[in-house]
Design goal:
alpha/beta; Urease, subunit C, domain 1; binds zinc ion; globular; six-stranded parallel β-sheet; TIM Barrel; single chain; eight-stranded mixed β-sheet
């Protein structure tokens, strides 16, 4: 089948950068883009009218915890732990996470994918679903949803342990545990490489920089080289981790990744903001510092702004990383899992960090959400609309209350578009969102299930909180209940 799209604007790729085509066409044959340009004379089975829309490459989310992130909504806002520098890690998030039941994970995963697709996301680097649901159940969910997934088995040889005070430390397990995880990575990779018509792509999901020992990180590097698959790891994601790495190794998280050999072009670092020179860590850079190391080794930073903004933290700044020569991509990490919102936050936090209207430009953030993600994942066939690239496309209406007047659709995508403007989403040549409706997921049923499941999660929080606090004690309601 040949699908043609006639768009008021098409964001095409010229081999080096995105270009804006006024009144353009995109032709899709099978799972690939066959043609992009001003016109097309060949046969087309189905035309999609995008006469007041922008036809954009689908967005690539490089950080997502699909099975667990929905729990955050209506809960983590306006909360955090001062003694952990406002983070909820090791505190509220642990109690919330432990209150999820096994049977809740598939509902949450489906919900996360639905959220992502409806925000124009076509590829996701997903962390945790294979581990929580089991390989076959996870793969089936990705298969049914229609999204392109980069995922796999988790790897670690340490766990976080905390006292009732604020003393969070790593307790090391045997490296055998991590090596066993790596065997599972290899088995998963052999079984699923190229599965789902190429929509499933194995990745090594190293847990966090302080839960993977130096010895294990070296083994992860060997395995990644052997299997030729990307790696992701959480690192430089909160002040406590930064301080613990100094305490354990006298190295910053980024320096440690360089020491072990994990830092490289195939590594996507989840968050990567707590680095030398950042005001919150009070640790000055030597020479070019952590930014210099990241650039030198060619690693990618997945910039996932919203989850940190909620805690009063931010990367300092999107533009500063780009100027240092670092590849930056965009991810989600918390609810709402909305790539349009994350892109907007990336732009605004960059401007605020630099006190500069030119910082965090729409162009730079759009590039991060498309080409930046593709580069991090080692793909030259994603994040762009060009002949022979995979047909992962989002069509966004620019004649809506949100988006008129539109002179520059890229500026409007970053600054004014929201999910209701996303009309069609195509992944691997298949239409998965049509006229704003998910074709692969029953949205109404899903929404009702998520509410029901999460009410039960909140009720279980005291069983799992280290101080036995209730949901309302951990995260108070905004207003007190009305009394007659
Ligand atoms: Zn994460």
């Amino acid at each position: 089948m040949t699908i043609g799209i006639k768009g008021k604007w098409v964001i095409g790729f010229d081999g080096e950068e995105h270009r804006l085509i006024r009144n353009g066409v995109v032709i899709i044959e099978g799972k690939h883009i066959k043609h992009v340009g001003k016109s097309y004379d060949g046969l087309v089975t189905k035309w999609i009218d995008a006469s007041h829309h922008v036809v954009s490459p689908g967005f690539i989310c490089t950080h997502c915890h699909a099975a667990s992130a929905p729990k955050d909504k209506s809960f983590i806002d306006d909360t955090g732990a001062r003694h952990f520098y406002m983070s909820s890690l090791g505190e509220n998030l642990s109690a919330l996470g432990q209150s999820i039941k096994k049977e809740d994970y598939p509902i949450y995963t489906k919900y996360s994918i639905a959220e992502l697709l409806k925000s124009g996301c076509t590829s996701v680097l997903e962390i945790g679903t294979v581990g929580t649901l089991g390989e076959e159940n996870a793969v089936k969910l990705f298969e049914d949803s229609g999204i392109r997934a980069f995922t796999g088995q988790g790897v670690s040889d340490g766990v976080w342990e905390r006292s009732e005070g604020a003393d969070l430390k790593t307790r090391w397990l045997s490296i055998e545990k991590g090596l066993k995880n790596l065997e599972a990575v290899e088995a998963f990779t052999k079984k699923y490489s190229g599965a789902l018509d190429g929509r499933l792509n194995p990745v090594i999901l190293a847990d966090t920089v302080d839960k993977c020992s130096a010895a294990l990180q070296k083994e992860i590097r060997v395995k990644a080289n052997k299997l030729n698959i990307p790696i992701t790891i959480h690192a430089a994601q909160w002040v406590v981790e930064f301080q613990n790495m100094l305490r354990m190794y006298r190295r910053t998280p980024i320096e440690f990744l360089a020491d072990t050999g994990l830092l490289g072009q195939d590594l996507i670092i989840g968050h990567g903001w707590a680095i030398s020179g950042h005001p919150l860590v009070s640790y000055p850079s030597t020479g070019a510092g952590d930014l210099g190391l990241l650039a030198e080794y060619g690693a990618t930073i997945s910039h996932d702004p919203l989850v940190f903004i909620k805690r009063g933290n931010k990367m300092h700044s999107h533009s500063k990383y780009l100027q240092a020569g670092i590849n930056v991509s965009i991810g989600c990490d918390t609810s709402p899992q909305d790539m349009l919102n994350e892109m907007r936050m990336a732009s605004y936090t960059s401007k605020l960090a630099d006190w500069d209207c030119y910082s965090g430009s729409a162009k730079d953030v759009f590039n991060s959400a498309t080409l930046g993600g593709a580069k991090g994942l080692g793909r030259t066939d994603l994040g762009r609309i060009s002949s022979n690239a995979l047909a992962d496309i989002v069509i966004i209406d620019m004649e809506t209350l949100n988006n008129v007047p539109c002179r520059d659709p890229v500026k409007n995508i970053i600054n004014s578009a929201n999910r209701s403007d996303v009309k069609h989403v195509i992944v691997n040549g298949e239409i998965v969102v049509e006229d704003g409706n998910l074709k692969t997921i029953d949205e109404k049923k899903l929404v009702s299930n998520v509410q029901k499941v999460t009410e039960a999660v909140w009720s279980r929080i005291p069983e799992n909180h280290y101080l036995k606090q209730t949901a309302d004690e951990v995260s108070p309601q905004s207003f007190k209940p009305y009394k007659d």
